[in-house]
Amino acid sequence: MHMLDDESALPAVLQGRRWRELDIYEAPDWYDVDYAGYRGEEAFYRLILERCVKDGRLVVELGAGTGRLALRFASAGFRVHAVEPAPAMRAHLLTKARAAGLSDAARFSVEDAVAATFAPPDPPALVMFPFNGLLHLRTMEELLASFAHVRAQLAPDGRFAIDCTGPYWDAMLFGPTAWGRADERVHHTSGALVHTCDRCAYDSATRQMRIDIRYLLDGHDEGVQIELRQTMWTWQQVLGALVRAGFVIEQQLGDVDLAPFDEGSPRLLVCAAIAPGR
Ligand SMILES: C[S@@+](CC[C@H](N)C(=O)[O-])C[C@H]1O[C@@H](n2cnc3c(N)ncnc32)[C@H](O)[C@@H]1O
After folding, report:
1. Is residue 211 within 6 Å of ligand 1 at its C-beta?
2. Can you tell me the distance from the alpha carbon of 190 to that of 193, in angstroms, rounded to the nearest whole number?
3. What is the pLDDT of residues 35-62, one digit of tens each?
4. I need a labelling partner for 211 at 20 to 30 A (CA). Which of 143, 201, 231, 277 fits?
5. What tens digit of pLDDT does each residue of 211-234 get?
6. Same domain, yes or no, for 255 and 179?
7. Are 254 and 133 in a shared domain?
């Protein structure tokens, strides 16, 4: 048995089950089990929205997912254009938007595109790429092309805001981890008990971290195993790519509580403006 498949550290409820394997963005309902209720970085974006987005100007969310932020900001009255490439996430987002009464396309629109290709209905006052979205960009060329495309779409006084985690240095240094970190969740719609665990492996050639997460509804024999791949960008690479793409850093914070940024910060939150003369 490969050490990654070792389940011996898990509680009995998570051992010897059958698993249906999916990419994370093929499983929007399971995405919401972990994240629908998470509000961490919302205050950061809300403060930028209140400061920079006036008079019905447009906000774009890149990688809007199931609408965790986009739907809240649209419901608060902001005009939101949600960009989401994964069909299942987009379908889930549209269902939730209808349920929230966001049926006026002039106020809430959804586009099947990526950060390097999106076409907003008018130049946005704010483009945001939250919650590790940019860790899905796999190469420096893609990162730069995405940031340059954002700059080209923005209104001249527009802002670009991002937040992402730093590299998972421990997992990168100490090698793959077998199944562990067993935990429990409450299903966000049914209230059912969900058992969860994960494992990870880093490929230094591609700088991709692969994280597998299992979810098992209590009392069931078969669960889902979702795969998440993220590029381990360093802070310096992200900040450098912003500058190379024509931005100046206006605000740089180190966590969702708006703590100042330093090299030991758990997250990087940035609000950038278009550099003068670019
Ligand atoms: C971590 S989720 C964040 C979802 C949502 N913004 C949130 O805060 O819950 C990242 C999202 O980015 C999307 N995505 C992946 N590659 C992308 C790209 N190149 N451009 C834009 N979005 C992308 C994924 O499909 C996924 O829905």
Report:
1. no
2. 9
3. 988 899 999 999 999 999 999 999 999 9
4. 143
5. 999 999 999 999 999 999 999 999
6. no
7. yes
